[in-house]
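Dear support,

I submitted the protein below through the web form. The confirmation email said the job was done, but the results page showed an empty box. After a refresh the structure appeared. I'm attaching both so you can tell me whether what I see now is the final result or a partial one.
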Amino acid sequence: MASKEEEAVDSLRARYEAAGQGHVFAHWDKCDEGERDALAAQLRSVDLDHVKKIFDRSIADHDTGAAAKGEIEPVVADASVLKASAEDLSEWREAGLGVASLGELAVVLLAGGQGTRLGSSAPKGMYDIGLPSGRTLFRLQAERLAKLMAMSSEEANQGAPVRVPWYIMTSPHTHAATEKYFHDNEFFGLDSADVMFFQQGSLPCFTPEGKIIMQSKHEMATAPDGNGGIYAALHHSGVIDDMEKRGIRHVYAYCVDNALVKVGDPTYVGFCALRNVEAGAKVIAKAYPDEAVGVFTRRNGEVHVVEYSEMPAELASATDPETGKIKFDAANVVLHYYSFDFLKKCCAPDDVVQSSLVYHVAKKKVPRVTEDGAGTETPDAPNGIKLEAFIFDVYKYAKDVAFLEGERGADFAPVKNKEGTGKDSPDTARALIDALHREWIMNAEGSVDEDDDDGLGVTHADGKRYVEVAPAASYAGEGLEPVVRSYFMGFVPAGLSIEPVRDNKRAAENAIDEDEPPAKK
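What the results page shows now:
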């Protein structure tokens, strides 16, 4: 009589054979007990019907020519922070702070990537971009979130602290290291009960014929399901349920590799909340036609993002005859807004979104088991298909989407490439932060002291001394006047992190009478 374990394996084998995937057991007899257990566990984790539907509809979509899908039209932002009146900006900001103060705002961070292109195998959020303080991306963003909560509490004039939960999506490669980093740094002062980590999922890799590729005799070849896998992950991890229990109504999402991101951006959140839309996007005007960013477009009335690699050259360089500007210039920089109800719909397994979501087809060289099952080989040419969903793929399901144009120098400093490459790298991000924070200090009637006579400023390896305003001192340039006045004659030193007055020993030593106006250079 067969044991329960043998019966379970026979049932599993029958299920895969019925799905036309029986070859995954081809080398079962060559596996030891541990390898068999690992393979069986991996095979049980796959919903065969679900992945087959994903594969079939994604291949069908991929094989449909762009022309057959309909022409694309540019998206025009509903408003711009560059052109909005002071009254509008204030109204949006107050609404956003109000949302946070009521406990209705959640923040979602996409942080599954490693810093491979930065020369590091650690999670990208742990990367130090070279600011005077040595703040990593995770620390910068945690402190900005803390400042948002403090501002929201102050705006509402409430004694109790505001709580904005932070949901951080990792990957199998970054999860353990990310959790450890936060624990080791005591969650950067945040309440650990309001920080939740969850992992994005993965999908099997397929041959062009739809057969699952085996990487070894006891392991399927798999790949992350893309940042669009966030919706399924939010459901399976229980994050959506947690949001609902907390009474969340508005969700802000962003990527970890933006060094200028305004975490929980109250002006943008308020802009979307006041319009009562299902989804929103803060977009940045493209800097030049072939900039490596996707752009928001409309096709058949639906909102889509066309990736830069998929945009025909003639459309990428097309200009608006009336303005002379780039026609398709609403760059997607992953500053996303969702109403909770819409996000919940996107995450539900039985809803139309998950049941019809099309994944992008990437043809890759996928390592495969050798014919005799003894090892793994990498083919010379692409042999497999990896399926990826993108986070923006759900926008076409939203009844209404609000677009707000942001300011490149205040909203977007990507950190993707190695130091010194000159594009989307730590040095370009540092320069953007430096320029913005110098502007903040000047607006607060201060000046930057470049001389550093006392030698306390940090000189970077590139020979420059950067200006950095700590998130606790200012979220977006507001409230810096007392900090500036705390420095002798209003001269704020370069090469230091400018902290709030209470935390700044050097500033306290140099403090002058607040009634005395600062000198200007």
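Response: this is the final, complete result; the empty box was a page-load delay. Residues 66-411 form a domain with the Spore Coat Polysaccharide Biosynthesis Protein SpsA; Chain A fold (CATH 3.90.550.10).
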